[in-house]
Design brief:
Radius of gyration: 16 Å
CATH class: Alpha Beta
Strand content: 15-25%
Distance between the termini: 20 Å
CATH topology: Collagenase (Catalytic Domain)
Strand order of the largest sheet: 1-2-4-3
Low-confidence stretches: none
Number of domains: 1
Mean pLDDT: 82
CATH architecture: 3-Layer(aba) Sandwich
Helix content: 40-55%
Shape: globular
Length: about 170
């Protein structure tokens, strides 16, 4: 897996060494996500994904532009392939030597705030946001229907629990 991680250098609240620790955590989590049985069954081959860790102001601007919602959000996903492509049979999908799944954008401050609010570790919140974002990249959309919402969040919970054990977070 080829993974690019970008950090918003305008975030004033970075603690010493935190960027590097977060980058290592994200790499371990993304690797664990893409090694899960469900993802392996998709026969994706080599995949590429960009993860952006940004501040509240930046994600609010992106949310306003791309979703027409002028508010801070925890995670945004920008999939490369649409639902129709993911729903096509494995045989009909065009093989790509290296597939770019898309981009996941995580808000650092919102993740810190939500972890505290939910009474969970920052690492668990980041894992949840990354899994949620990657599921959107591979065709899931909880806003499409109640059934899809149930499927997505059920898989998300299962993956997060498995990944946290594997990644030893």
């Amino acid at each position: 897996m080829n993974l690019t991680i970008e950090f918003d250098t305008s975030i004033k609240s970075w603690r010493s060494g935190e960027e590097q620790l977060l980058q290592q955590l994200i790499r371990r989590l993304c690797k664990a996500v893409l090694q899960e049985k469900w993802f392996l069954q998709q026969k994706l081959g080599t995949v590429m994904c960009h993860v952006w860790v940004v501040g509240a102001k930046r994600i609010q601007g992106m949310n306003k532009v791309y979703r027409r919602k002028d508010k801070v959000t925890d995670v945004l996903s920008f999939p490369q392939y649409d639902q129709q492509w993911w729903n096509s049979s494995l045989k009909k999908r065009k093989a790509h030597p290296c597939m770019h799944l898309g981009d996941v954008v995580v808000c650092y401050q919102k993740a810190l705030q939500d972890a505290k609010c939910f009474g969970i570790s920052f690492e668990e919140e980041i894992a949840t946001l990354l899994v949620h974002g990657v599921l959107h990249l591979v065709g899931f959309d909880h806003e499409r229907s109640k059934l899809e919402e149930k499927r997505m969040f059920s898989l998300q919970e299962k993956l997060v629990n498995t990944i946290l054990k594997k990644a030893k977070v």
